[in-house]
Amino acid sequence: MKLARYFHLLIPLISVLLGLICGAVIMLVSGYDPIAGYSALWSGIFGDPFYIGETVRQLTPYILTGLAVAFAFRTGLFNIGVEGQLIVGWLAAVWVGLALDLPMIIHLPLAILAAAAAGAAWGFIPGFLKARFKVHEVIVSIMMNYIALYVTNYLIQNVLTDSKDQTELIHPSASLKSSFLESITNDSTMHFGIIIALIAAVVMWFLLEKTTKGFELRAVGFNQHAAQYAGMNVNRNIVLSMVISGAFAGVAGAMEGLGTFDYVSVKSAFTGIGFDGIAVALLGGNTPVGIIFSAFLFGALKIGALNMPMEANVPNELVEIVIALIIFFVASSYFIRWILLRFKKEGKS
């Protein structure tokens, strides 16, 4: 019984360990030194304040996209459109950052709220179609990703600029950049967005665990028929869930537009941050605390990997393999659970 209680902690930890071990084996087979490779990875994460700042900057949008995916998961939905919601949130935040010139206490929150509203609107469409016409949210949200990519590219070139591939920099009053955080991390791109991401995690926890509406949303996710029998409006809660999920993703876009870059540019492909959010939510067990730790792991691996070719001559693509293996082992949680139970039974005998 005690072992079963800690499965939700053991399975992600074992998955990460197995992923790292398999990554080491792949390095050996490929002719690389795994000790040197992982040492370079570690150094690329913690070896300098600059790397630490870059890691925090990288994990900031991961927390928010992980929350977006997890919120939908917890309410019985699969929001694979987080990438598109992030892109429209990015555009909306920069648009407000460029169009208005207000005091920071008004301008910055307004830009973030605009991003949340844009992401929420993009999440509303698959939610409404799911609730009203029973169209699967995965299909609609995938298509919405492509619509977001090409519509934002058009607006950047034809509305925000005069046929340019990048907008001007936003007004400083709408920026999340911090000279203090940059100075203590050797001029990294770390910004105040990490505070917003952590607040968002608290908001998700409070909403799902401490409010009546959160109970309704979770109830609909567990069993729609039972929820409807209990008098809950299932369709309204489906739409609301996708709207809230999209809002989290939109704020993730604001972190990029207002913090990391201070502009929005034409994209030839997806950023990948929204899709990585699926892995972050999966590894984090769809809980806010778990997502913070899994976002740190993914952010650290992404930043640390950049140091591997320089220090150990190991291709940084190997980290992508390690991440894929970690996701594979998390998805194979039934097998890991079976092994743990076997060890438990053998220990008793």
Shape: globular
Strand content: under 5%
Radius of gyration: 21 Å
**Which structural class fits the helix and strand makeup?**
mainly alpha
> Uncertain spans, ≥5 residues at pLDDT below 50?
none
Integer average pLDDT:
93
> Quick one: how many beta strands?
0
Count structural domains: 1
- Note the gap between the termini: 16 Å
User: How many distinct helices?
Assistant: 17
Q: List SSEs in N-to-C order.
A: HHHHHHHHHHHHHHHHH
| CATH architecture label name | Orthogonal Bundle
CATH C-level class: Mainly Alpha
Molecular structure report:
The protein is an all-alpha fold and 349 residues long. It has one domain (61-308): ABC transporter involved in vitamin B12 uptake, BtuC. It contains 17 helices and no strands. It has helices at residues 2-5, 7-29, 34-46, 49-74, 82-99, 104-133, 137-160, 179-184, 193-210, 212-222, 224-229, 234-260, 273-283, 288-305, 308-312, 317-331, 333-348. Helix 6 runs antiparallel to helix 7. The radius of gyration is 21 Å and the shape is globular.
Helices and strands in order, then pairings?
Layout (H helix, E strand, L loop, with lengths): L1 H4 L1 H23 L4 H13 L2 H26 L7 H18 L4 H30 L3 H24 L18 H6 L8 H18 L1 H11 L1 H6 L4 H27 L12 H11 L4 H18 L2 H5 L4 H15 L1 H16 L1
What is this structure, in a nutshell?
By secondary structure, the chain is mainly α. It has helices at residues 2-5, 7-29, 34-46, 49-74, 82-99, 104-133, 137-160, 179-184, 193-210, 212-222, 224-229, 234-260, 273-283, 288-305, 308-312, 317-331, 333-348. The protein contains 17 helices and no strands.
